[in-house]
């Protein structure tokens, strides 16, 4: 019983209120950027997760292999209840490979108690409508 | 009397002004992941942590909202390790599952029968617009009937929404 007490209940997911993570558009368009040889896609995300302040941006091919890209910051701070617009730059030569652009919630280990549902929303860069 | 007449005169003198106020909006395809319910590990026996209600736990519930049908896949991965725990010297055996809970459209019940499960991941094809609540269960068992050391344990459920 002594052992049971400290491990009785452990919080697996986030704090009480409902919280949400969204990203648009679903099919962003890759357009030529102001830099030769680079294409740019413009996206926006909304953070309604009160337990998350940071999101990581990633670009992947269809097998979920990372593709090099540039953006203002790979880990962006999006305060609770705010929208954030960001741009993703990829090389012309990666255009055919780049399939997904994703934002993933970054969970902080120093926050007490909870963890933790990590959320990840991915849009498609290849314009392949279902 | 004079005051009433004056007010009437003013009211009649005012031209009727009607302006149309336009409200505009558009529905674009998007997916929103909500963390609706906290999950809690119950500790029914010293060697087991479980989110099942019969084990004293609470299942986490994740809600997916999709605005347009058939544009996204929901992918939920149950924990296969602790993100925080005391030092463990033996193996932890993990089991977990994800299932359809509440739905906003009766047709979404079919997600359960057509789900695809591999390793710790379950995929649901979101073919109908609306909200779907997914229940996640997770069980961790330590060694062969060994008691978990006391301390704080945390684990991560990954909820993904992938454009098709």
How would you sum up this structure in a few lines?
Chain A has 130 residues and is mainly beta. Chain A is 0% helix and 45% strand. Chain A has a single domain, classed as Immunoglobulins (Immunoglobulin-like, Sandwich), CATH 2.60.40.10.
Primary descriptors:
heterodimer; A: 130 residues; mainly beta; Immunoglobulin-like; 5-stranded antiparallel beta sheet; 0% helix; B: 164 residues; 4-stranded antiparallel beta sheet; 2 helices; 10% helix
The biggest sheet of chain A, with number of strands, parallel, antiparallel or mixed sense and barrel status, is: 5 strands, antiparallel
Number of helices of chain B: 2
**Radius of gyration of chain B from CA coordinates:** 27 Å
Q: Which secondary-structure class do the elements of chain B indicate?
A: mainly beta
- Overall 3D shape of chain A: elongated
Under CATH, the topology of chain A can be stated as: Immunoglobulin-like
Overall number of structural domains of chain A: 1
Class by alpha and beta content of chain A: mainly beta
Largest interface pair? A-B, 43 and 51 residues
Shape descriptor of chain B reads: elongated
CATH class category label of chain B:
Mainly Beta
Quaternary state reads heterodimer
User: Which sheet architecture does the biggest sheet of chain B show?
Assistant: 5 strands, antiparallel
